[in-house]
Design a protein that fits this description.
Elements: H1 3-14, E1 20-21, H2 25-42, H3 69-76, E2 84-85, H4 87-90, H5 105-108
Antiparallel strand pairs: 1-2
Length: about 110
Protein backbone atom coordinates (compact mmCIF):
# COMPACT_ATOMS: atom_id res chain seq x y z
CA UNK A 1 0.00 0.00 0.00
CA UNK A 2 1.28 3.48 -0.78
CA UNK A 3 0.87 6.59 1.36
CA UNK A 4 -1.90 8.06 -0.80
CA UNK A 5 -4.02 4.91 -0.52
CA UNK A 6 -3.37 4.69 3.22
CA UNK A 7 -4.40 8.34 3.56
CA UNK A 8 -7.69 7.72 1.76
CA UNK A 9 -8.52 4.58 3.77
CA UNK A 10 -7.60 6.02 7.18
CA UNK A 11 -9.34 9.33 6.47
CA UNK A 12 -12.67 7.56 5.86
CA UNK A 13 -12.34 5.61 9.10
CA UNK A 14 -10.95 8.33 11.40
CA UNK A 15 -12.79 11.52 10.42
CA UNK A 16 -16.18 10.27 11.65
CA UNK A 17 -14.45 9.77 15.03
CA UNK A 18 -13.27 13.39 15.09
CA UNK A 19 -9.67 12.60 14.10
CA UNK A 20 -8.49 14.60 11.12
CA UNK A 21 -5.17 14.41 9.34
CA UNK A 22 -2.84 17.32 9.93
CA UNK A 23 -3.44 19.77 7.07
CA UNK A 24 0.34 19.98 6.57
CA UNK A 25 0.36 17.36 3.82
CA UNK A 26 4.16 17.07 3.76
CA UNK A 27 4.23 16.15 7.47
CA UNK A 28 1.21 13.87 7.12
CA UNK A 29 2.68 11.93 4.22
CA UNK A 30 6.06 11.60 5.96
CA UNK A 31 4.26 10.01 8.90
CA UNK A 32 2.18 7.77 6.65
CA UNK A 33 5.34 6.60 4.88
CA UNK A 34 6.83 5.82 8.31
CA UNK A 35 3.71 3.79 9.17
CA UNK A 36 4.17 1.80 5.96
CA UNK A 37 7.85 1.27 6.80
CA UNK A 38 6.88 0.00 10.25
CA UNK A 39 4.29 -2.33 8.69
CA UNK A 40 6.95 -3.71 6.33
CA UNK A 41 9.55 -3.99 9.10
CA UNK A 42 7.45 -5.28 12.01
CA UNK A 43 4.20 -6.50 10.47
CA UNK A 44 2.08 -3.78 12.10
CA UNK A 45 1.68 -0.02 11.80
CA UNK A 46 3.21 1.13 15.04
CA UNK A 47 3.33 4.82 15.86
CA UNK A 48 5.96 6.48 13.65
CA UNK A 49 7.07 8.73 16.51
CA UNK A 50 7.87 6.04 19.02
CA UNK A 51 10.40 3.21 19.23
CA UNK A 52 8.77 -0.13 18.54
CA UNK A 53 9.95 -3.27 20.28
CA UNK A 54 9.06 -5.56 17.40
CA UNK A 55 6.69 -7.44 19.70
CA UNK A 56 3.14 -6.71 18.55
CA UNK A 57 1.68 -7.60 21.95
CA UNK A 58 4.07 -5.27 23.79
CA UNK A 59 3.40 -2.50 21.26
CA UNK A 60 -0.37 -3.00 21.13
CA UNK A 61 -0.96 0.39 22.80
CA UNK A 62 0.99 2.25 20.11
CA UNK A 63 -0.46 0.68 16.98
CA UNK A 64 -1.76 3.62 14.98
CA UNK A 65 -4.03 5.21 15.91
CA UNK A 66 -2.61 4.56 19.36
CA UNK A 67 -4.68 4.45 22.52
CA UNK A 68 -3.19 7.78 23.56
CA UNK A 69 -4.30 9.68 20.47
CA UNK A 70 -7.89 10.47 21.52
CA UNK A 71 -6.93 11.79 24.98
CA UNK A 72 -4.17 13.85 23.33
CA UNK A 73 -6.55 15.27 20.73
CA UNK A 74 -9.15 16.07 23.39
CA UNK A 75 -6.60 17.86 25.59
CA UNK A 76 -4.15 19.36 23.06
CA UNK A 77 -5.97 19.20 19.73
CA UNK A 78 -3.31 16.86 18.35
CA UNK A 79 -1.90 13.42 18.92
CA UNK A 80 1.72 12.99 20.02
CA UNK A 81 3.17 13.02 16.49
CA UNK A 82 0.68 15.51 14.99
CA UNK A 83 -0.66 13.00 12.46
CA UNK A 84 -4.19 13.22 13.85
CA UNK A 85 -5.61 16.54 14.97
CA UNK A 86 -8.93 18.20 15.72
CA UNK A 87 -10.66 20.51 13.25
CA UNK A 88 -9.94 23.42 15.60
CA UNK A 89 -6.21 22.59 15.56
CA UNK A 90 -6.17 22.46 11.75
CA UNK A 91 -8.11 25.74 11.56
CA UNK A 92 -5.67 27.48 13.93
CA UNK A 93 -8.43 28.11 16.49
CA UNK A 94 -6.40 26.52 19.30
CA UNK A 95 -2.68 26.80 19.99
CA UNK A 96 -0.32 24.14 18.67
CA UNK A 97 1.17 23.09 21.97
CA UNK A 98 3.76 20.42 22.66
CA UNK A 99 2.01 17.11 23.35
CA UNK A 100 3.78 15.25 26.15
CA UNK A 101 4.35 11.51 26.04
CA UNK A 102 1.50 9.64 27.75
CA UNK A 103 2.94 6.18 27.32
CA UNK A 104 4.12 4.87 30.68
CA UNK A 105 7.91 4.73 31.07
CA UNK A 106 7.87 1.00 31.82
CA UNK A 107 6.42 0.37 28.36
CA UNK A 108 9.07 2.52 26.68
CA UNK A 109 12.12 0.68 27.98
CA UNK A 110 12.43 -2.81 26.61
Amino acid sequence: MNAQKLYEVMKKVQEPKGCFFNKNKERTFELLEALITNKDRYGYMGCPCRLLSGDRKADRDIICPCIYSMPDIEEYGSCYCNLYVSEEWNDGKIPHEYVPERRPAEKISF
